[in-house]
Amino acid sequence: MRSVRVSKALSCVLLAAAASACPACSAADEPGASAQGLTSANSSLYLKVQINQQLKLSKLKPGDVVEGDLARDVYSSDREMFTAGSHVRLAVDHLEKRRRAPNDHWPGVIKLFTPRHENYPVFKTATVSAANAESALQVSLISVSRRREVHAQAKKKGSGPQAGNVEVSESNAAPGPQKKRPQKTVARTMILEAFPIENQESSATGANGASSPMPDLSGMEALPAGTICKILLLGDVSASKSKPGDALQARLIEPVLLNSRIVLPAGTQIEGKVVKKTAPRWGSRAGSLALTFTGLTLPGGNHMPIAASLAGAELDRRSHTKIDAEGQLRGERPGKAWMAINIGVTAGLAKEADDTLQLIIEAFVSTATDASTAGVGRIAATCVSGIYMVSRKGRDVVLPRFTEMDIALDRQLSVTRTAESAPSAAVVHGN
């Protein structure tokens, strides 16, 4: 009887624990919970800092100071937090080892002899000086590299979209469809993810450190097809690991203006997916990646479908990736250095295969000589070298997190706003 009572008591305790845990489980499983996490991730600030000094990450020590200037304006929703050119000061807190970012600059044989990890400085806070005010931010270093802009190749005459009279910063001016834009190499740049420090007063800052006035958002505006929007990728995408149908998230990092009026505020969430991908293949054939952007969500939660394609991206200077006229990312063919390295390794493997096979035959066959085994060795060397050259894969297409991209609207986008509504209360229509 005592054992029965004990078992009943234990079962009651277990049922009570399960009942108390169910609300927490259901709350975690609600769609709003994941959406809230995504919203908090999208609410971070994007700092692009141009370094004003010679910087070697492996040489930095705790306490060292790194200084630079903002390379672009920083927006939080519809407010401009900091203007381009504002001074940024960071102090190294400590160093940690991180895995090296993948790249397509060198063939795989070089990567075998390259350390997989490198020392990275960790910054906890950054001080941004704008005019007469200073603001402290919690920051996390994403990458440090020299970057270059890559734009879609020009389409044939008469097939390219027109940008209309969109008036925004240089990123919102559509690249001319009739001529090819030259690639622009920018200085060494540090990419940081930042959050305002709690209990610190945050206000939009203009050129004079004052709050930016709210723009006139009343009326209806229509963004013409071909309008360029500057977005920030929020996840890693690559031709070797991504799959067709994979969803991707991005956000607008600059407001889109039309006739000096904000149509899409910064912070607008952009949704897209991988349409097609080709992984790097044998025979040094490069990979390719096709993306499309299918929807946007304004900061207030209004969602609508759109149709937009990739028009440009800012990649690492060493990346050998180009964008064709259809907006598809393609890896370039191996260059001279790439082929020279592979040919050198092939010659070494052929020599080793030839000598090794001859030694093995002579060791087991007492009557074998160098002359009699030379032909067999050459055949083996040719097979080994041929297999090695054919099995070499081409360049990958890699878009790391926080990659700046330009997307072009494929059709007109109409946004209707009322004079009393806030920027988040816009009603958006797609034509």
What's the tally of helices?
5
Strand content: 35-45%
Query: Biggest sheet: strands, sense, closure?
Result: 14 strands, antiparallel
Helical fraction: 10-25%
- The CATH H-level homologous superfamily of the largest domain: Type IV secretion system, VirB10/TraB/TrbI
Compute the number of structural domains: 2
Low-confidence stretches: 1-41, 158-185, 201-218, 418-431
Radius of gyration: 28 Å
- The N- to C-terminal Cα distance equals 76 Å
Structural class: alpha+beta
Choose one word for the global shape: flat
Any idea of the CATH class of the largest domain?
Mainly Beta
Order of helices and strands: HHEEEEEHEEEEEEEEEEEEEEHHEEEE
Care to count the β-strands? 23
Task: Describe what is shown at a glance.
The protein is an alpha+beta fold and 431 residues long. The chain has helices at residues 2-29, 31-42, 108-112, 336-364, 370-391, and strands spanning 45-51, 65-70, 74-76, 79-82, 87-99, 117-130, 133-151, 184-196, 219-223, 228-233, 237-238, 247-252, 256-258, 261-264, 269-278, 288-297, 303-316, 321-323, 328-331, 398-399, 404-409, 413-417, 427-430.
